[in-house]
Structure formats: C-alpha cells, structure tokens
Amino acid sequence: MDIQNAGALAFGAVIGWVTYYTMRYKKEKAITDIATVIGAVGGAAVLALFPTKSVLFGWYALGLGAGFFLYVLILLLIALAHGKLGALVDPDKNQNPFMGGG
User: Fold this and answer.
1) What's the pTM value of the predicted model, to 2 decimals?
2) Contact yes or no for 36/59 (Cβ under 8 A)
3) Which side of the chain, N or C, has fewer Cβ within a 10 Å radius?
4) H helices of 30-89, where?
5) Of the candidates 102, 97, 99, 94, the residue with the CA atom closest to the CA atom of residue 22
6) What's the CA angle centered on 33, arms 38 and 75, to 5 degrees?
7) Considering all CA atoms of the chain, what is the largest pairwise distance in Å, rounded to the nearest integer?
C-alpha cells in the first residue's frame, strides 16, 4: 500500500467516523454538518495547497486520521479510568458523557 492509498483510507475513515458521530448525536442537522466537515477537511482550499501529483495529500490525510483516532483512543482511556465506558457505547445516551454530563 503506497502513501496515497493509505492517506485515502485514513481520510475515508475520518469522514466515516464523523458521519457516524453526527448521525448519532445531531439528528436535526446531520447532513449539513457532514457536508461542512467534508468541505473543510477535503475542500478545494486544502487541496490547492498541495502540488499536483505529489504525495502530500496522502501524508495530510494520514496525519488527519492519526490525530483523529488518537483523540478517540484518549477518550476511551479516560472513560475506562473514570468508569464511564458504558456511557460511550450506550445507544440511549444522546451525548458524549464528557461533553455536557451525560
């Protein structure tokens, strides 16, 4: 797997996770929120920063994915340490237990 493919995979994983999170916690404006994230993260302004046919977008997407999933890992570790892991996976909860006290 080359850097472009790995970057595309990481980029897709981040967009997929954001889509899941938005659909679960913000049902009233989910589609517009998802479109905003995709536009901000992979929009023309970001892509214009990288020279044509370079591997820079692959590295950018890998960095985005690494930072994003590192945050998720840290959230899980904090939940485990505070005994709130169940609140993160409970489908009846409408919010993250660390953001507004769920």
Assistant:
1) 0.61
2) no
3) N
4) 30-42, 44-48, 56-82, 85-89
5) 94
6) 85
7) 48
Q: 44: Cβ–Cβ under 8 A, 6 or more apart, which residues?
A: none
Higher pLDDT, 29 or 5: 5
Q: Name the domain count of the chain.
A: 1
Q: What is the pLDDT of residues 23-73, one digit of tens each?
A: 766 667 677 877 777 777 767 677 777 787 778 878 888 888 888 888 888
Which residue segment(s) compose the domain that 10 sits in? 3-89
Q: Which residues contact 64 (CB under 8 A, 6 or more apart)?
A: 10, 11, 14, 41
Q: Does residue 51 lie in a domain region? A: yes
Taken as a whole, the chain contains a residue count of 102
Specify if 31 maps to a domain.
yes
